[in-house]
Amino acid sequence: MKKYSWAIALISIFNFGFSNSQAQLLYRISGNGLEKPSYIVGTYHLAPASFADSIPGLREAFAATEQVYGEVDMLETLKPENAAKLQAAMMLPEGTTISSLLSKEQMERLNAVMRELMGVDMNNEGVAEQLDRLSPMVLETQLTLLVYMKNIVGLDPADLIDTYFQREAVKSGKAILGFETADFQMEILYGAPVDKQVEDLMCFVDNFKEGVETAEFITAAYFSQDLEMLEEIKLEEQEGACAGKPEDNDKLIYDRNANWVKAMPSIMSDKPTFFAVGAFHLCGDRGVLRLLEANGYKIEPVKK
User: Which of 168, 146, 173, 143 shows the shortest CA–CA distance to 157?
Assistant: First the structure.
């Protein structure tokens, strides 16, 4: 990501807190037989709920719709049976730990990154008790979150933009639905074989500095509401040291985009809908916006 270092600085200086004529996260979906338009907004899983006020036209678009669709119904994930399944999916089997899966040298490299992020490592008894039984993928996710959270001052994990839309839906009596089930998302996020999870964790560790720079760039691009730069990051990551195989990218992003777009016509015909999904899903030729256009819908940026 080094070639984008200059862009991070420019975005931060010129776009934070200012209106950018090219910036856009919210789009109107109309045409193709729809009686009323629907809307789609790109989210960032670590953006504070208050950022919604920075998206032009968002409140009006939200008020004009009758139901809210997210990637998943977050209330569904909180049900006891799903919470229990999630907890189980996040843990290694009994008797297995991160320390037992990694070599001594790998643990030293992991501990160095943990000390940089947390000030402590797995040699600390309390830290090991909390983290050593997590699956490698979950530990990598937790460390990645710490990297991103350092870029957002005052972030409250309990008050994020994804939950904001569903919380507002409850307040206004709108139905809340999700494209995917809790089980599907658990499989997508935590279902990889353990050896593949170890490989990915160590790639994160061994490319930590690059990952920090990527996090800075993603944060800056999102808060600047710049989908084009987010697309550049995504394409760059797909060629980076820790890039997944094309089929991994299909499973995580592109197949899901296609499935959502197949479902959207009947959803929008039933009721004008406010869709809130990760901004990366809106980007590029295989993103939701272009796929909707290819299916005959009119996609317009909402400016106010």
Answer: 146
